[in-house]
Amino acid sequence: MYLFPLETSTDAAATSSGFTPIILMVAMLVIFYFVLIVPQKKREKKDKEMRSNIEVGDLITTIGGIVATVVALSDDTLLIETAADRTKLRVYRWAVQSVEKVKLDD
Q1: Rounded CA gap, 40 and 50, in Å?
Q2: Is 44 buried (19+), middle (13-18) or exposed (0-12) by CB count in 10 A?
Q3: With contact defined as beta carbons under 8 Å apart, do 67 and 28 qualify?
Q4: Where does residue 96 rank: exposed (0-12), middle (13-18), buried (19+ CB within 10 A)?
Q5: Residue 26: phi, psi to the nearest 5?
Q6: How far is CA 22 from the centre of its chain?
Q7: Which pLDDT belongs to residue 61?
Q8: What DSSP state is assigned to residue 35?
Q9: Which residue in 31, 61, 91, 98 has a CA-CA distance of 20 to 30 Å to 48?
Q10: Helices (H) and strands (E) in the chain — how many of each?
Q11: pLDDT confidence of 85, banded at 50, 70, 90?
């Protein structure tokens, strides 16, 4: 008499199928990482580089839709001037949505 039954082929199949949900979960996490997180990090890096390369005279558009020319720079803020009435505003660098480099004719 045996106290423990011998392992049968159905027991082995049930044990190996226990890893299937774990493998599927890991595969989903890897796909999620490459589809969502990697492109987001690339976009953030590109935006950070764009904001750090702003120079005086560049035409910018803020997140709020203000189109203006950069007059002065500091570490984390910009002094901008609107074209219509030459109003000067101070905005944070993170509020810049796009930059258009203005080429000076020499």
Answers
A1: 15
A2: exposed
A3: no
A4: buried
A5: -65, -40
A6: 29
A7: 95
A8: I
A9: 31
A10: 3, 5
A11: confident
How far is it, in rounded angstroms, from Cα 78 to Cα 56? 9
Tokens of 49: 């580089």
- Apex 65 CA angle, 63 and 68, nearest 5: 100
* Alpha helices for 3-106 (secondary structure H): 9-17, 20-32, 38-52
- Phi then psi for 66, rounded to 5 degrees? -80, 125
Structure tokens at 82: 């609107």
Residue appearing with tokens 């901008």: 80
Which amino acid makes up residue 94?
A: W
The set of residues, in sequence order, having a beta carbon less than 8 Å from that of 82 and lying 6+ positions away, is 66, 67, 68, 89
pTM: 0.66
User: Which residue type does 20 have?
Assistant: T
Q: Residue with structure tokens 């709020």?
A: 64
| In contact, 79 and 66? CB cutoff 8 Å | no
